[in-house]
Design a protein that fits this description.
Shape: globular
Order of helices and strands: HHHHHHHEHEEHHHHHHH
Strand content: under 5%
Helix content: 55-70%
Distance between the termini: 62 Å
Structural class: mainly alpha
Number of helices: 15
Radius of gyration: 22 Å
Strand order of the largest sheet: 1-3-2
Number of domains: 2
Largest sheet: 3 strands, mixed
């Protein structure tokens, strides 16, 4: 067999392998998520965590420039060398695809968190209403404790670097209850691509090749603690967006800092209200009337921020990311973010 066919065939093998391994989540959980990935992630976070800038973003920049150079250099050879060029592209994709799954993405195939934590999957509308009612009371309480005025929005006065450091406290407290949420060797960075991320509609992302948690440093500060805790959940091996929302929530509410708690509760309340709004408009209006004006002002601030950057770029990337999630074991696509309400309601069982 000619060498130029090896990597393209290896890509096909990888795709078939993933189709099979999807039926064996316990194998992935035991041998990859709790063993190989632990060593992979610890190595990269230790190696890159102390570097003050995003190494992954620099890597992506170099990679993009290199790809553009290759496209430019090969532009004249496509008519005569199209077969070899296609094989070269498939070979490159094969290498990237392998690195992506070996370094992080096999976590998409691990045991779901609801099984790991014995959380039910179903709940009634009444369960959602009862939980939301308690969530409103808790969020109102924290908002008032911070501002001393129910009409004032919460303004986080910490620097973003301080929030990075304080985020460790929540995970340290959470691991006392659930050892599998242990977070060590921090590697949390402000993304060098924050402006492009804003136009794409993303608050942060995990670089699967370097293990760095990237946060968009332009987002409203109220959402910053919840965003970094979400990305840290990805770092410890959880790929599902709904699960990372849930873990990020737990880490924030376990943090003794009120700003972290407010970021989590207000975020969860927004998701619950969205779910209610899709089911029952009159209930949505009723619950909204119970929310402190200051909280609604924070929501308005967030909406105005994203509206300012709402373009066709944002819509295009959301379509792309929706399909990416569906390919990677998240059948609800981008809607899977809101599925963490299922985990919340069933985990707390009406109590908070």
């Amino acid at each position: 067999m000619k060498r130029k066919y090896i990597l393209p065939l290896f890509l096909l093998f990888q795709i078939l392998f993933l189709k099979v391994i999807a039926y064996f989540p316990n194998v992935v959980e035991r041998f990859y998520s709790n063993r190989l990935y632990v060593y992979n992630s610890k190595f990269f976070r230790t190696l890159l965590g102390k570097i003050p800038f995003s190494v992954g973003d620099v890597f992506y920049t170099i990679l993009i420039l290199w790809i553009l150079k290759c496209i430019w250099n090969s532009r004249k050879s496509w008519k005569t060398e199209w077969k070899n060029n296609i094989l070269s592209v498939l070979g490159f994709v094969s290498i990237v695809y392998f690195a992506f799954h070996f370094l992080w993405a096999l976590n998409y195939y691990r045991v779901p968190l609801f099984e790991k934590m014995n959380i039910k999957r179903e709940y009634s509308e009444e369960d959602l209403y009862a939980f939301t009612d308690k969530l409103i009371a808790k969020t109102n309480e924290i908002q008032f404790e911070i501002t001393k005025n129910k009409n004032l929005k919460v303004i986080i006065t910490y620097s973003q670097d301080s929030i990075f450091k304080l985020s460790q406290n929540g995970y340290d407290n959470l691991k006392k209850e659930y050892s599998f949420f242990r977070y060590e060797n921090p590697s949390r960075k402000k993304s060098l691509f924050s402006l492009p991320l804003t136009y794409m509609g993303f608050g942060g992302y995990l670089n699967p090749f370097t293990g760095e948690a990237q946060v968009n440093d332009k987002i409203p500060m109220v959402g910053f603690p919840m965003t970094i805790n979400h990305e840290m959940a990805h770092q410890i091996g959880y790929a599902s967006e709904s699960e990372c929302n849930f873990i990020g929530f737990l880490a924030c509410v376990k943090n003794k800092d009120l700003y972290f708690q407010y970021s989590a509760y207000s975020n969860a309340l927004r998701y619950c209200m969205s779910n209610i709004g899709m089911k029952n408009e009159s209930k949505f209006i009723y619950f909204k009337s119970k929310i402190n004006t200051g909280i609604l002002e924070n929501y308005k601030e967030n909406e105005l921020f994203w509206e300012e950057y709402d373009t066709i770029i944002d819509k295009g990337f959301h379509v792309f990311y929706d399909q990416f999630l569906k390919v990677n074991q998240q059948k609800d696509g981008i809607e899977s973010y809101s599925k963490f309400v299922d985990l919340l309601v069933n985990y707390y069982g009406g109590e908070l």
